[in-house]
Protein 1
Amino acid sequence: MKTTDSGSGDVRLTGISKTYGSFTAVHPLDLTVPQGSFFALLGASGCGKTTTLRMIAGLEEPSSGTVHLGDHDVTALPPYKRPVNTVFQSYALFPHLDIFENVAFGLRRRGIKSVKKQVEDMLELVQLGEQARKKPHQLSGGQQQRVAVARALINHPKVLLLDEPLGALDLKLRRQMQLELKRIQTEVGITFVHVTHDQEEAMTMADTVAVMNGGRVEQLGSPADLYENPHTTFVANFLGTSNLIEAEVDSKAGDDIVLKAGDGKLVLPVARCSAPTANGGRVLVGVRPEKISLTHAADAGEIPEGRNRITGKIADSSFIGVSTQYVIDSSVCPEFEVYVQNVDRDTRLVPGADVVLHWSPAHTFGLDAAQD
Ligand code: ATP
């Protein structure tokens, strides 16, 4: 059920900002959300993501900049004149109306008389066809949220804005609804802009994620990009766990940088380093825990050539079902623990064991050690 013409639902923010007195909630921001994409604004509480969403909706007046929807500059338009609709965390359904009438409301308000087919189609889309005559209190939280989505989509907005829509649901329901919202977005084909503080939620649902921090977009990319190649320590740590080892640029070798870390060396592709790469520069060398393999020091001869390797001693291990998580005191970062998630269930190493940690340079990223 495609609900809009293609090419008209991209969102373009140009130099958009918001200040409250002397406080800047959103610093001047340029952002393009392509038509038909599922876009997430991700960040901790207070980073400015809701304010950004509200400026797209017209619920908040920008202090500077413009908002374009498709080719139209909508900056000066009130919310109801913009081809957007918003779903909030609180479903705000009309308790005295049944589900059918809740969804029909927007059509009736526009004076449309024959609403039956449209509402039934919309209820089918959100898989609530059987519930049409129930009242909101007779539905689960997830079902109520789907009614809210149906109600927001019934007037065929070009962009649907979602402000922490799953925040009130328990974890299991939230996971189901993440997939459900993704399915609905794919089916209707319109642009979704989704605000969340939950990195897993953003990564599950969105094609593109903008990670916000302190009123700025810190990095923009696909979930895989952000996870595999973060550009800042904030992004590296906000999207999962990351080991960060301080190292010094020693030399270049083709497309790689060679770094000194303690008495060892690490290799990092230039393309995966967001830090200055002049010799002597300090770089935080990052690697995700699940990319690291562990080998007992006595078997180190079996490790293939060309892998980054550091030595260490198992400090702690915890079995967490799918894998074992190790904390390792490493020779290259003595003040630091290195986390390894070992998926090989046959290799359990006990605390005190001397080990070699090794991983592919292709799974290594470099961050500027001088950044905040
Ligand atoms: P949350 O997830 O908690 O909603 P957020 O990332 O969506 O956080 P915003 O709601 O956009 O954050 O708020 C960004 C900053 O702007 C916060 O520090 C907030 O306190 C401030 N702020 C928001 N609205 C106002 C206002 N009307 N007056 C003053 N400050 C405000």
Protein 2
Amino acid sequence: KKVYLNGKIVSAEDAKISVFDRGFLFGDGIYEVMVQLENGLFYKKAHLDRLQDNLNKIGIQYNIKEIDDNLEVLLKASNLTDQSCLIYMQVTRGVAPRKHSYPKGVPATVMMYALPFSLPHINPKNMKAILEPDFRWHRCDIKSTSLLGNIMTNEAAMNANTNEAALVRDGVISEGSHTNIFFVKDGTVLTHPANEHILNGITRKIVLKLCSDLDIPVNEKPIAENEIEHMDEAFFTGTTTQVASIAQLGSRTFYKNDEIGKVTIKLQKAFAQLREINTAN
Ligand code: PLP
């Protein structure tokens, strides 16, 4: 297995970083996940632009052009050129004596790897989710490698034999532990607005665009926990989740069997069709 680390392709065993890396000490870094499907890197530019935006937000001086230029190098070294795969990448503030303030003139640590990974055209899984308090910080718009709140709530979902945790902040549903969440009510698609309480998912943005293309009305507004019972459909979105129907959310059962809501199906099908074109740029 190969890893791209600071400008070089090395084997996974040789991919070593300092214990003084700020990513290790503070979780001081940004990550990104994208997939390569039949027609190339799915929404590559959107993912790389988000990475650059996030790095700018936290003042890590790094130009994602290096990553862009080396994606093909990594895929070739990993024998994954033109194969379905997942690419993980992260950029941290680099190696410096442990001190909270940002060090000056330290190069970022840049790491990425690719794994074989396939995605069905439509996520066959009707998801079950629990509701968990959203005790994360107030900058969930930053795709930080510090994911304690996300992994703790996801672990709670796994322990409850469900697939995901939907997070509740101040009485409203923000997002999932590693997904965005949407509802459908009387034909209108509803989702939390893209502010500092959610990560603005690339899949979320794609779905909103599909709604506009398909003339499905959208309202970006927070849904209260006590409104869930009145919703007609619900689904999670994410790079590896795609558009996944929710069968059960907390005490609300949407479907007892494999049924899927009609707006959800429409969006799943439209989303699957995007694989037939090259969306990389
Ligand atoms: N929300 C959170 C907290 C996430 O971690 C993710 C993806 O990892 C998403 C939403 C979905 O984002 P995307 O569609 O860009 O994968």
